[in-house]
Amino acid sequence: MSDILTPTRPALPVADLQRDLCVHSVTSHIVDVPTVRRHKLSSLSVAAQSYVIVRVRLDNGVEGIGEAATLGGPRWSEECVEGIKATIDAHLAPALTGVRADAFELAGARLDAAAKRNNAAKAALETALFDAVGRSLGLPVAALLGGVVRERIPVLWTLASGDAGQELEEAEAKLAARLHDTFKVKIGAQSAAADLARLGRLAAALAGRARLIVDANQAWDETTANRCTPALAALGIELLEQPLPAWNLAGLARVRARSAVPLLADESVFTPQDMLALAQAGAADAVSLKLVKHGGLLGLRRVAAVAEAAGVGLYGGCLLESSIGAAAHLHAFAGLRELAWGCEHFGPQILTGDLVTEPLHYADGHVHLPSGPGLGLVLDEEQLRRYARR
Asked: What are the chain's domains?
C-alpha cells in the first residue's frame, strides 16, 4: 500500500497549492468503440459502445480524465453522448472554470445549479476532478475518498447475445482462462418461455462450475415475474435484477415477498431519495451502484450509505465502461466496507480496443484496483484519435 500513497511531487505552500488546483479548462470528446459481439438488452442492442471522454486541466498543468457511458442513445436513461457533450461544453464546463478542483462538494453544487439531472455528464466531470487532484497530490482517487478496504473485487461476465450456444462457448472460454466464474444473463428481449429455456440450457451445462444471475432490464410485468421466479429458483439463479419497470416499487415489493430469488434494483435507484423510497417499500435485497446514475463518486457513496443504513446489499453495476469509467467505479467500490455481490466491470474486455495505455488487470474472477496517482491510468492518445467520432 505504501507505494500507492507515496507523493510523487514536492509539497507546495498552502496558498500556492490552492491557486495551483483551480480548473483552467475543460474539453470533451465523443468516441465510439466497437464491441467484440452484439450486446442485447430487453429494449436495445448495440455493436459499439459510445462514450464522452472529458479532460479537465488545472492551473498547474495537470490533467484529469473522466468518462460518461451510455447504451444505444437515450434509451437506457434520458442521456445520450451527443447531449452529454453539448451540455458539458455549453453549461457544465463554464460552471467549473476557476473553481478549486479539490472543492468537490462546491464543484458538485455548481454543476447542479447549472443543469438538472444530467447525471452521466456530471459523473464524468467529477471523476476528472478527482483524477486531476490525485495526480497533483500523488494520491490515488480511493485515498481521496477515504482509503481502501479491498484492492481487488469479484467481477462477473455478462452473457447477452441471446443465443444459448454462443453464450455457452463464451462462458466456457472465460472459465478456461480463469477470468470469470459468475455470469449475468440478459433476459427480456425474448418471451419469458424462451428465456427460461435458454437459462435452463446454460444452467445445466455450467452446473457446479459457475454461478448465474439474470437481468430483465424492466421487461416483465408483475404477473410474469411471479410466474417465472419459481423456475429461476429451481435453476439455481442467485439474483434477479430489475424485473419490473423502475416506477413500480409496490410491485417489486410484492414480487420480492413471494420470490425465493433475491431482487436487485437498478433503474429504480438514481438518487439517495430513490434509494430511501426503495428501502421503505421493501422492494429489493440489493442495489446496483453506477456513476452514470448517481452523478459521480460522491453521489454513489451517498446512495450506498442509504442502502447500508437500510440493510440493502451493494452490487457494483456497469454500463459497459472502458477502463476509464471502470477504474473510477473501482476506486469508489474499494472503500465500501461491504460489497457482498461484487461487481460487473467487465466492460473493457468486451471492447475491440481500450482508451488507456495499460488496461485493467483481470484474473481469477477478480478485477484489480489500478495503482498510482489519480485513477492510475494513462490516456492512449492514439486510440482516442482512432475511435473519435468525426
From this structure: 2-139 (3.30.390.10), 144-379 (3.20.20.120)
